[in-house]
Amino acid sequence: MSKLTVAVIFGSRSTEHDISIVTAIASVIKPLELSGKYNVVPVYIDKKGKWYCDPSLSDIALYSSGNIEAFLAKLKPLAIRMDGKLELVLKRKKVITVDVAFPATHGTHGEDGELMGLLEMAGVPYVGCPMPAAAIAMDKALAKTLAASEGVLTSKFEWFYGRDFEADRKAILTRLAGLTYPLFVKPVHLGSSIAISRVENSQALVQAIEVAAHYDDKVLVEEAVNNLIEVTVPIIGNQEPRAALVEQPLLKDSNLFDFETKYMNGGKKGKGKENGAQGYSKLPADLPPKLYKQAETTALKVYSLLGCAGIARVDLLIDSRTSQVYFNEVNPLPGSLYAHNWRQAGVSNVQLVEELVDLALQRAQQRRQLSTAFSSNYLKQY
After folding, report:
1. What's 156-223's CATH class?
2. Cα–Cα nearest to 197, from 255, 145, 144
3. What is the mean pLDDT of the chain?
4. What pTM was estimated for this model as a whole?
């Protein structure tokens, strides 16, 4: 039996481009290769949106050395062909037919549903959330609105478009006056905590909105949760999802789980504190059993409400004094797949990617059973 060809797609035009490279190579490509079950094809999208395919693109040293641009200059971008399947057309007309796509793109033009839409049109099975769920999850305001409408607790929030703020700042600030400081200001569609600010007064609020609007056309402003315990819950599955361990990030004095905390503190010079992807979290979270179960149940409910499948991570905020659990946001492609958490829960890196490929194939099979054609006499009237 021939091996399945799995195309791992990463990079793209996103502020999280570099994080995507690390996720793809360390957490997806290497475990897939170690399984021995797949023909693994790295597909890199550069910052201008050009697609490339070459075995060397799975070597992290190519990117960390700064030689990637020179390498790509000698490599012809690939073409994509879709005629009931997804084919990668390389130089000298070599064609690779993709059996399963494994998106590892973070942020815009990938994780937000755009790439999933392309894969849906191509009819190729793919790992992770379907396009509608990814699009909703990456819109923090929409995800909160949907969750709240189904009875999930969220902190009080307002959202608006950046253009409306520029057109009439006074009107927007009047709306925001109903919120109680401290507030968090966020670009709605970005991940990795980029351009998120915690503000204590109206002057800082305006500055934070301007920063958020520089990165996104939609801005979310929400009240902080008192007596905060922040937790995150990785989940995998289709119709019957299951959670890994509830994880508790260790926050800095700013109480903001920001880009620096997530990705920089645990690098080569970082000392880390406990378990976690970069050594910055308690795993499992230090919560009373009842509250731990409540967090897990809330995360699974949100995962299902948004229509997530394959893999996602649900972030929650807990008021330790009242034991209320608030939904914060969903990450439809967790950085590093949160493999450290699954490993602690008893699922190895190789087992994790194998299960995700299987889930992609199962969901594709279920979708093929749905009717996509409808016969009518509509055109006969013309």
Report:
1. alpha beta
2. 255
3. 91
4. 0.90
